[in-house]
């Protein structure tokens, strides 16, 4: 019978701090960036007082930066949208904080909505947001009669947002989906 325990094999963990990983101060994985977006969405005190609305264009505010990433807060009045675009070499997370936005891609249309107290967007038939890789092309629009607010995390920070011409197929997919 072997009496070796994990502690006897590894030694006293307090004596080997070099084996323990320090908690990360900033996200580095897709899951961690999505977690950052969700935690900011849930903490209205971090962003709600900053929101403004502009009748001529979407309003935006850089909420947070970290090593290689940035977080943007945007507001959308009814009818405001982005046009078909991608995010260059940046990956991203988009989540709706208030209201509803519609995303059009070559694969169809998705409604992205904020959760109500105790009700997740999925339970209301809406998705909480979108995680995307570099080159992901979409158009986002507020096609409701109410304002909307969204949060966007980009890694690396957004430096390029190429616009795309709408093709017949993309326009058809957006209309028929």
TrEMBL record:
It comes from the Bacteria. The keyword Metal-binding applies. Pfam families: CDO_I. GO terms for molecular function: ferrous iron binding; oxidoreductase activity, acting on single donors with incorporation of molecular oxygen, incorporation of two atoms of oxygen. InterPro entries: CDO_1, RmlC-like_jellyroll, RmlC_Cupin_sf. Fe cation binds at residues 85, 87, 138. Keywords: Dioxygenase, Iron, Metal-binding, Oxidoreductase. Belongs to the cysteine dioxygenase family. This is Cdo1 protein.
């Amino acid at each position: 019978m072997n009496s070796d325990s994990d502690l006897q094999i590894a030694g006293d963990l307090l004596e080997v701090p070099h084996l323990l990983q320090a908690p990360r101060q900033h996200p580095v994985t897709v899951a961690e960036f999505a977690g950052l977006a969700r935690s900011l969405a849930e903490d209205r005190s971090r962003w709600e007082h900053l929101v403004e609305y502009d009748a001529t264009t979407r309003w935006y505010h850089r909420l947070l930066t970290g090593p290689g990433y940035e977080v943007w807060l945007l507001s959308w009045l009814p009818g405001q949208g982005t046009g078909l675009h991608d995010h260059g070499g940046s990956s991203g997370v988009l989540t709706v904080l208030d209201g509803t936005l519609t995303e059009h891609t070559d694969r169809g249309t998705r409604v992205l909505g904020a959760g109500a107290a105790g009700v997740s967007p999925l339970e209301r038939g809406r998705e909480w947001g979108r995680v995307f890789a570099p080159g992901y092309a979409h158009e986002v629009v507020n096609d409701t009669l109410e304002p909307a607010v969204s949060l966007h995390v980009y890694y690396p920070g957004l430096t390029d947002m190429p616009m795309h011409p709408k093709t017949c197929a993309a326009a058809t997919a957006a209309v028929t989906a």
